[in-house]
Amino acid sequence: MPVVIVEMDSSQWEDQTGLVYHFPKRYLKHLPEGAEAIYYKGRMKDKKFAASRLSRAPHYFGTARIGEVRPDPHDPKGSFFAHIENFAPFAEPVPTKIEGEYLETVPSNLASNYWRISVRLISQTDYDAILSQAQFRPVQPNELIQLDQEDPIDFVSANEGSQTTYFGTRYERRKDLRLKAIEIHGLDCKACGFDFEQAYGEHAKGFIHVHHVVPISKFGGEKPVNPATDLVTLCANCHAMVHRKRDSTLSIDELKAMLRGRWVFQL
Fold first, then answer.
1. CA-CA to 183 of 20 to 30 Å: which in 2, 102, 110, 129?
2. Which residues make Cβ contacts (< 8 Å) with residue 100, sequence separation at least 6?
3. How much is the pTM?
4. What domains sit in the chain, N to C, each tagged with a CATH number?
């Protein structure tokens, strides 16, 4: 059954449009793997978000498919992550009403609070009606990041590492793999335990480096990357030490051994 997923301008969840949707467990039965979804935004309440929206009014802005759904191991309330597949953004907003009629069928028993529901099951007829009003735009390619520059924040194994020439060689780093790595490994450094948010507060919320155990430059082309085993979260200092010598990359165990030796020496 199709579903409408609501994206808030400001939320407690660390969502990424078209990549991952974070939701409370009460909606788990509405988001099975393979479900067709339509993205929706409600009325804008703060004008600072205007540039990131297609319209200030309530509207639909894209379609997607629900991929793998996994529990958030770091949330004691038991929320979940849905990996978003095949995101297709609309070129123009699709309004909730056409000629005075809602595109979604609002049940009479939910008339007073229907539009507050964050995950809404809809009929195939309503799904088709919304899509009939949509014009799609091409998805922009992932931003390329310089080989010697680590993306400060970045779900299912995938290929990455394809090359392109632009004043030297650059390598693609996929944001969905970074998100998956953070979901699995958390936001603390797996070598020294440092947590940016604990140290710097709200300003550093969600900040961590994601390290490739085998550097992308050694791939020799595209290869499968498993976020559980091929990626790990590190603080900036530990990440810099891992890559300090360009001809050899330290393993996480070697880095931990260095840290243990330093602490023993200081004692």
1. 2
2. none
3. 0.59
4. 3-131 (3.10.590), 145-266 (no CATH)
